Amino acid sequence: MDEGLAGWCRRWLGAEPVAVLFRAGYLSEVTGLRLADGREVVVKARPPAPRLRGCLATQAALAGAGFPCPRPLAGPAPMGRLAATAEELVPGGDLLAPGPDAAGRFAALLAELVRLAPGPEAVPTLAPSPPWAAWDHDRPGLWPLPDDHDGDLDDHPGPAWLDRVAAAVRARLAALRLPPPVVGHADWESQNIRWRGGRPLAVHDWDSAVAQPEAVVAGLAAAVWPAAGAPGEAATVEQTERFLAAYERARGRPWTPAERQACWAAGLWVRAFNAKKQRLAGGGPHLDRLAPEVPERAARAGLGVAAGA
Fold first, then answer.
1. Three-state SS for 171?
2. Is the pLDDT confidence value at 308 over 60?
3. Are the beta carbons of 224 and 189 closer than 8 angstroms?
4. The last residue of a domain, from among 60, 88, 116
């Protein structure tokens, strides 16, 4: 048992860890533990950031409102050079099997999250958004810093069509008149959600909480919701349309024309960002899957086909 992790548990959870249940992680170090008092918890450590307090407050508020997510227990608090949080372990559950009603279930669950979430003013800051959602970043240049690569995406120009898409999306979203931001989840991929008996059991990855217009939150999700962990997985244009239509029904009011364009523009941003990161490695499935979809997605976002591949 790592002494830094054990000491953190003693201080912030009041109990000694006695067994490691699992270790995982991609952007964070995630450890499942059994404590001496019988509790089973998940401790997540990652670089410190002011937005983590807002993420934890969002998760706590939603858990308290009955939304299916693990209840936070401690943090964020230092663990060496990292910031750690703890939440209850919610074991079991499965990925939702693909099917004709899957888009509707994912969309309805996200709409319920937005309905139950506190307003952005009620939690500590959630800024800046994670880079795959940060179309509105304030860095010089076109792209935000990548989340899982060293370096600057702007130091690696091209392909030209992809940079044009990103620039057009940023300009379009900045120009649209949208309602004020809501609190949502910006990594609404199947791999982050577990189900039991067709009902949602637990939504994970609350470091991805954001404050963005509702159309942006829905649009980000609509573009990626089927992704279950295999390389390059994302929603087709048809799957995106089904998700957005289902979300519209779940929230009980239609998208305005500006919101509909924002949905498609936001989805194009996350897909373009993922493709740009793969470009650093010479290409990949995100880049290959996005290219033929760009004209249709760009047109629905109000960008025009000139921004396409």
1. helix
2. no
3. yes
4. 88
